[in-house]
Amino acid sequence: MIKIIDFQNIHTLTKLFELQRASYYVEAELIGFSDIPPLKESFEEFQQCGETFLGYFEEDELAGALSFTIEGEELTICRMVVHPNHFRKGIAQMLLYNLEENNQESTIIKVSTGKDNFPAKSLYSKNGYQFVRDLMVAPGVYISQFEKFI
């Protein structure tokens, strides 16, 4: 089941924070860069991020989440996380589909991921996101930017 995460529910928010850490540790290994911003933020900073989160729940367990912001007709996916115990179950795909289905007033969706995060790049490409560019964010570290017009 996918639903918007209530940031007033500290128990769920704590689980989301832990899920994010577990997922981004894997990405850090994939791209060879441990200074990914979500891995450096405190719980208090996380609480104040201002993003909307969709959570994928398997029974009562939070297995994945996607966050986004909307500015005008532009939607930006800020975070896509799946707990390593739930990789390869299609959770990211379901979150992405839910996001697109429920935000059809947006005309463009933007997202970035580590240049060497091939599973994420594959997910976005197979869902119609077009590669825009690679951007250096630290010496020798690049993110790949994608966008989709809907």
Automatic annotation (TrEMBL):
Top-level taxon of origin: Bacteria
N-acetyltransferase domain mapped to chain residues: 8-148
InterPro entries: Acyl_CoA_acyltransferase (IPR016181), GNAT_dom (IPR000182)
CDD domains (UniProt xref): NAT_SF (cd04301)
Key words of the record: Transferase
UniProt-recorded Gene Ontology molecular function terms: acyltransferase activity, transferring groups other than amino-acyl groups
Protein name: GNAT family acetyltransferase
Lineage of producing organism: Bacteria, Bacillati, Bacillota, Bacilli, Bacillales
